[in-house]
């Protein structure tokens, strides 16, 4: 039996009220963009379900892509049938026969979205189950933990038959919660923070600070490689690379050593905030975890936050390192993040950074230097890279993606 479609279940999306259509439309566009490599497929979006019509494309390969798309709770390769019990019984026999192995058990899980169908749920289960038991020698029933679960979904327009439920990425479709800028260092934390933000429906763009010759091209490539991993969720990822050498050298020269870390973070945030403003995003995301390093104390966050009123999202604030590492392994960024290349957060690090910096003191130290022209210059010279599942290309226009 060859599947002709993939049935997609919305999960959390189904709890939305009047704006559900907007969420469904956004999910449909994201799926269509992610499946561009399968030109024959088409997509039908309905209030309760979405269907990817295969039109001869490979269901297994398409399933690999669907697993990574936020907004999908689960999905099943399925076939569409006429509303006729004899046709359903024949199709159930074909599909179970094709996957049955000696000793397998099964059950029938009928669900009637259309109550006008000629048989009720129990009658459907009995008709199809009896037919399979009669025609497949050795097949046994196990309603609690079957090897094969034949799902029969009765709807007004047709019957859908499937034998497999595949877990999706969950969450909300990309962009339904707005857009935010992720401060992406290349370490373990910030990619995970980006992933978790994307899962809640945020369209996330990365901002990375690059300080050659103090940081190498390999360090830059490390962040690009991480961005490619993030692009595997929802199809693309935009990365802004900020030239930071001049500013970092000036901070090292003008600010007392134990306050250089605080000043560096404050100016990074100012630059990220300006990139956010120019790209019409509404928040900044960081990979901060409370108490992890000197810049992640409450006192440091208070002093650093002082430079902006923009919401700062910290998805990892209560996570410990073990939890973050597990997430990094799950999203396949761990092995890239532990490559031993320094980024600009690990060069010029003071021997004894202030863990409880005073906002008034850092404001005073910064008042002797006009950083504004350098910040403007850095933002004007940002390199923007758009990474997709299949390829990466340099472009400053993102609107054409959607």
Give short descriptive properties of this protein:
402 residues, alpha/beta, nine-stranded mixed sheet, seven-stranded mixed sheet, 13 helices, elongated, disordered C terminus
How would you describe this structure to a colleague?
The structure is a single chain. Helices cover 37% and strands 20% of the residues. It contains 13 helices and 16 strands. The strands form two sheets. Strands 1, 2, 3, 4, 5, 6, 7, 8 and 9 form a nine-stranded mixed sheet that branches. A seven-stranded mixed sheet has the order 14-13-10-11-12-15-16, with helices on both faces. Strand 15 and strand 16 form a beta hairpin. The longest helix is centred in the last third of the chain and has 19 residues. The C terminus is likely disordered.
Q: Give the termini separation.
A: 36 Å
Name the shape in a single word: elongated
Order of helices and strands: EHEEHEHEHEEEEEHEHEHHEHEHHHHEE
How many E-type strands?
Answer: 16
Which parts are unreliable, with pLDDT below 50 for 5 consecutive residues or more? 391-402
Helix content: 25-40%
Q: What structural class do the secondary elements suggest?
A: alpha/beta
Largest beta-sheet details: 9 strands, mixed
Taken as a percent bin, the fraction of beta residues is 15-25%
The Rg value, from CA coordinates, equals 26 Å
């Amino acid at each position: 039996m060859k599947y002709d479609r993939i049935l997609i279940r919305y999960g959390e999306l189904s709890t939305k009220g009047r704006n559900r259509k907007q969420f469904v439309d956004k999910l449909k566009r994201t799926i269509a963009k992610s499946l561009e490599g399968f030109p024959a497929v088409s997509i039908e979006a309905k209030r309760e379900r979405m269907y990817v019509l295969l039109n001869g494309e490979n269901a297994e390969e398409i399933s690999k892509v669907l697993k990574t798309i936020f907004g999908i709770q689960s999905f099943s390769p399925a076939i569409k049938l006429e509303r006729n019990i004899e046709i359903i019984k024949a199709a159930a026999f074909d599909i179970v026969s094709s996957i049955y192995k000696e000793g397998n058990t099964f059950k029938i899980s009928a669900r009637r979205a259309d109550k006008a169908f000629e048989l009720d749920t129990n009658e459907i289960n009995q008709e199809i189950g009896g037919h399979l038991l009669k025609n497949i020698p050795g097949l046994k029933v196990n309603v609690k933990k079957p090897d094969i679960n034949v799902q029969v979904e009765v709807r007004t327009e047709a019957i859908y038959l499937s034998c497999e439920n595949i877990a999706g990425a969950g969450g909300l479709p990309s962009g339904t919660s707005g857009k935010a800028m992720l401060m992406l260092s290349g370490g373990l934390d910030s990619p995970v923070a980006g992933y978790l933000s994307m899962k809640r429906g945020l369209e996330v763009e990365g901002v990375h600070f690059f300080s050659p010759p103090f940081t190498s091209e390999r360090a830059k490539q490390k962040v690009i490689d991480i961005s490619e991993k993030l692009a595997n969720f929802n199809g693309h990822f935009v990365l802004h690379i900020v030239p930071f050498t001049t500013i970092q050298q000036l901070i090292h020269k003008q600010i007392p050593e134990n306050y250089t870390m605080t000043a560096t973070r404050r100016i990074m945030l100012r630059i990220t905030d300006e990139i956010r403003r120019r790209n019409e995003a509404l928040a900044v995301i960081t990979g901060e975890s409370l108490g992890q390093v000197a810049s992640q104390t409450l006192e440091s966050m208070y002093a650093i936050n002082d430079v902006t009123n923009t919401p700062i999202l910290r998805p990892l604030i209560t996570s410990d390192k073990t939890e973050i590492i597990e997430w990094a392994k799950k999203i396949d960024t761990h092995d890239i993040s532990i490559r031993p290349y320094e980024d600009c957060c690990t060069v010029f690090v003071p021997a004894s950074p202030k863990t409880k910096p005073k906002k008034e003191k850092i404001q005073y130290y910064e008042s002797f230097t006009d950083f504004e022209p350098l910040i403007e210059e850095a933002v004007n010279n940002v390199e923007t890279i758009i990474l997709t599942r299949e390829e990466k290309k340099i472009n400053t226009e993102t609107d054409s993606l959607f």
